[in-house]
Amino acid sequence: MTETVTETETETETETETETETETEARTEAEARTETEARTAKRTRTAKRTKATDRPPLLTRARALPPWSLLAAGVLLGGLAGGGYGLARTPQYTATSYVVAVPAEGSDPAAALGFAQAYGRVATQLAVLGDAQVWAGVPVATLRDGVRTATSPDAPMVSVSATADRPGRAVDMADAVARALTRHAGTAADATHVTLRQLARATAPTAPSTASPALTGLVGASAGGLLGGLALLVRPRRDAPAAEPAAPVPAPAPAADVRTPL
Asked: How far apart are CA 177 and CA 126, in angstroms?
């Protein structure tokens, strides 16, 4: 009976040892799997961090540029924009015709100056432009947008300037408004004792009155440089380098006891 008990205990111990070994192996495999997963996750994070480092954000790149790059970029972009606008815009031509106010015989010459000022304001009204559109061959709206008048404080003269996309059209518009204005003043000559006469007909302009592409490019470059300078003033400053930590100072050593026994 003692032998039977001993054999049972031995089998129990063997089974216990087998279970222990199995648990140890399972634990070892779980630990190895966990370690492998941790290494994989670490490599993934490292790869993502490396990609992010290789491709810095736009703001970081902008801060890395030298300060004068903002000024140069503003001048370049402004010059290109101004020159492109000057090339794309249709050239405009301006022609000017002159009429003079002549007082009637026996009337006050000073009255002619006052009526010249008044007719200068009337020249762009619908009553005059309605007649001028027949001779100019353009709508009233075109005359209203393209015709300007000016008067002199010293002479009874009215200048009629017309702006159009072709020199010939500008001449026709200026002469047509001047002709309509003299005709309109002639209908009231008996009451005003002042008549308008055409002093000089308009001549065809040889060059456009609008700015050239070179000039618009120069203006654009100046404006771009101004904006670049303002951006240079308000841009954030670069972060100052962090100060290196000071070296630790060793603590003073305790004084040695040099007393000797008596």
From this structure: 11
